[in-house]
Structure prediction request, 478 residues.
Amino acid sequence: MTVHSSEARAGRASADPDRAAKRERILDAAERVFAQRGFYAAKVADIAREAGVADGTIYLYFKNKDDLLICLFESRMERVIQILGDAVAGATGPRAQLRAFVAAYLTLIADQPTAAEVLTIELRQSTKFMREYSPQRFGELLRILATVIAAGQATGDFTDQVPAPHAARMIFGMLDEMALAWLLGRAPRRRGQKPASPLATGRERGKMPAPHGTDFDISRAADWVAALVTTGLERRSPA
Amino acid sequence: MTVHSSEARAGRASADPDRAAKRERILDAAERVFAQRGFYAAKVADIAREAGVADGTIYLYFKNKDDLLICLFESRMERVIQILGDAVAGATGPRAQLRAFVAAYLTLIADQPTAAEVLTIELRQSTKFMREYSPQRFGELLRILATVIAAGQATGDFTDQVPAPHAARMIFGMLDEMALAWLLGRAPRRRGQKPASPLATGRERGKMPAPHGTDFDISRAADWVAALVTTGLERRSPA
DNA sequence: CCTGACTGAATGACCGTTCATTCATCGGAG
DNA sequence: CTCCGATGAATGAACGGTCATTCAGTCAGG
Prediction:
């Protein structure tokens, strides 16, 4: 399908650019389906339908369902790291860089909620695996942050009470939790199908509108995170 | 179908205490198996064997596999909340209470790594579901923390730049991430069986000893978290 | 004997994966 | 330019393996 004018040329030419596009179509579909149903509940057939291809076609592009998840992770994570790296590079001085990182991360979540949902929620279904499987990507993200902090410690802007790598981990934890809270607090489910949750196979409980009433402006979260990270909770000077 | 937990009473004399004990045996077994294999990869038969009962027996105590996970969650989470509540109650003043909470949480992780693994890692396999399903328990935990913070804000010990509930979330995120890092950084796998990870069905990569070389004294983590939370990264006074 | 807790082999549904087949496209021969 | 066989991407029905769940028995205690 599609292949109109362009590809023509040198015989097999259609293979490369077209192939990549279809691969991307499948990844996009997988992203949507995983986000909606969760990895384990997502059927390969669902993804195929969503991508508009046959079940078997998926196996021409990916080794198996696991491979699909891994490739999706790699693809999206690369994008994330790119953006965060740019954000940091675009700021000057540890404080500004730290703030830029935080803001960029949360903006990313807000802008790409579907991708974020997969990275933040569904991939956790195999966090243990993912972090064992591709510590690089995830470590890369932490390293960007740790580098900023270490730099700040070197210049004396930041205290060195907390080792930079651990500080980075904690900050990531804060961001991750805020992202999670925000993602779960949005309009609950999308389409008509079964309510997605991997476990909900059994009964269907009346879906509560939002987990706790958790629903907030995520851009404000950046300020909260930045405030907590830089100045902490304690009042600086007595009242 | 199946009994509703507490109903029994009258009927069989031995029924109640005995029954509860066996139920607990199954829960313990499930905890171990889930921690080792992950929820989806864990077979009901594995849990039965681990508990020393027949497959069918599990269904005399739990409605189904999902129910088993839910009950496990409820059981362990109750314990956690109890302990954290006590820790806070045992300290005086917002700062001390905050520190007590942090220390108690991480101590819990260190003392009960198996339970922690289930709550922190494997339950995440269905975070979306769990948090939708039982927001109470999880919210309870956050509320303990938020209450401490709000109290501190009221007394003027803490800044109110960050709304207490969100501050609580962020702190929990930090703790969670540190717990995760520590749990994943320990001696990788236990028994002989397949390497547990739900996804690793495919190839088997030479298991790296530890994700990044992440391995640290978790009790020290309490200090880091407390430091970051209370005073932040920025140096208080110029160098 | 009853009773009912317990057993574990048997059942059946479900889904990832395969593969025989289809068909659009292409290049060379006439 | 047209025709023809080759090519391999795409298809989707069917396969096979894996478990969760069931239930017809077993048996110990009363």
